[in-house]
Amino acid sequence: MMSQSQNDSLTRVGPGTDAGEVLRRYWQPAALSEELNTKRPVVPVRLMGEDLVLFRDSEGKLGLIQRHCPHRGADMCFGRLEDNGLRCPFHGWHFNRDGQCVEQPAEPEGSRMHENIKARSYVVEERAGIVWAYMGPGEPPEFPNFDCFRAPDSHVFAFKGLWECNWLQAMEVGIDPAHASFLHRFLQDEDPADSYGKQFRDKAANTEIPMTKLLREYPRPAISVDETEFGIKITALRHLDDGRVHVRITNQIFPEAISIPMSREMIITQWHVPIDDENCYWYSIFTSFKEPVNKELMREQRLKEHRLPDYAPLKNKRNNYGYNPDEQERETYTGMGLDINVHDQWAVESMGAIQDRTDEHLGKSDVAIIKYRRMLRAAIAALKEGGEDALPMQKVDASTVFGPISVDAIAADGDVDAAYKTEDGIRRGGCSWDAII
Ligand code: FES
Ligand SMILES: [Fe+2]
C-alpha cells in the first residue's frame, strides 16, 4: 500500500508532475502513421494532458504544435493546411511546422510582431508505423536498437486502442505474468492453426500443448525479475507434470512499454501512453521474425473491435464489455468474448480512472509491479536532483540496446537460461532481416 501523495506522484502526467517529467525524457507515440493517410493530414493529439495538432505539410514533413492558436485560442485542428504550415481560420495567422508564426495578415503592413510569436511545438519522428514525439527538454534520446525498430516495414505492423484509465494500471497488467492463467483462461482450446494474429492461441514453445491449456492447467508461475539497461526482464516458470519447465520471458521497457511474445513467429512491443491522467492509448508494434506481417488481416481483425477515428473499443464499460454469464460458465473466465484485449481493458478500467493504491494488497506474484514502481520512484528522485543520466537508456549508446528477448521456451532438462536463449537464437538465426544480437 502507498500514500495518496505517492500514488499521485507515480500516476499523474501533466507538465511539471513527477511521473510526467520522467515520461517526457522518452519518445512517446503520438499517432499511428495511418491516421495521416488522408486527403487532409491534420489530426488532434492529446498527449500527457497537452492538447496538440499533428499535421503533414506540403513538403511531406510532420509538425506537432499546440492545438489552441497563440492569438486568441481558436482550434487549429480546423486550420487551413497551406504553404508549408497550418493557418488559423479565425484571423489567418500562419504557423510553420516548428510552430513559428510566419504571417499575421490582419496586422498592419510591415508589422514584425509575428517574429515573436511561436506556438509550442515538439520534435516528431516516424518509425515502425508510429509518429513519435519528444516532449522533454534538450535533445531527444536515440531510439534503442529494439527488434521493432530494426525490422523492415514489411515485418512490423502498428495499431492502437483507447483505454479509459490511467496509464500506470494499464502498463502494470502487462508485467503481471500470473493474470494470464485466469483473466485470459479459455475453458476449451481452439485449434492453434487458427491462431494467426492472436495472442495465447499458438502452441506453447516447441510442444504440442496449446498455450490456452498450459495457462489453464499451470496457474502458479514462479516469477523472477532482473533489472536491465532497458528496464526489467521478467521470467515466469511453469513446472509441468512431466518434469519439463515452460519458460516465458517478457519485459518492461522503461518507462511505459512492455515486450512480450505473441506467438512463435511474432512479438508485441506495447506502449501505454497517457492521453491525460485518466485515459491512455496502447500502441502495439507487432514484429515478425518469419514471414512479412499480413497487415491487412491484422488491421481487419482489430478494426472489427474498434471504431475510428479514435480507436475506441466497441466493447467498453457502457455496454458491460459484452459480458455474458452463460459464456462465463462455459467458455471463458470473464464472459467477455475471446479477444484478450477486452479482458485486459475490463481489468484495468474497472479499477477506476486512477487505481486507488492506498487500498491494495500486493502478493508474491506482483513482484514485477513492485520492482517497476521502485524504478519509477528512483527515476523521479534522480530527476529532482538533476541526475537525469541515471534514468534507464538515457546515457547508454542506444545502438547497443537490443531485443528485448521475448520468448516462450521449454527447458526439458531444467536449464532455463539455455532453453530460452536457444529458442530465441533459432528464431533470430532464421530471420530474413538482421535480427542477430
Ligand atoms: S485565433 Fe487564430 S488567428 Fe486569431
Ligand atoms: Fe493480459
From TrEMBL:
- Please name the InterPro entries in this protein's record: Cholesterol_7-desaturase (IPR050584), LigXa_C (IPR045623), Rieske_2Fe-2S (IPR017941), Rieske_2Fe-2S_sf (IPR036922)
Q: Which residues form the Rieske domain?
A: 27-133
For this UniProt record, the keywords arranged alphabetically read as follows: 2Fe-2S, Iron, Iron-sulfur, Metal-binding, Oxidoreductase
Annotated PROSITE patterns: RIESKE (PS51296)
GO molecular function, one example? oxidoreductase activity
Which CDD domains did the record assign? RHO_alpha_C_DMO-like, Rieske_RO_Alpha_PhDO_like
Q: Which domain of life is it from?
A: Bacteria
Q: What is this protein called?
A: Ring-hydroxylating oxygenase subunit alpha
The species this protein belongs to is: Celeribacter ethanolicus
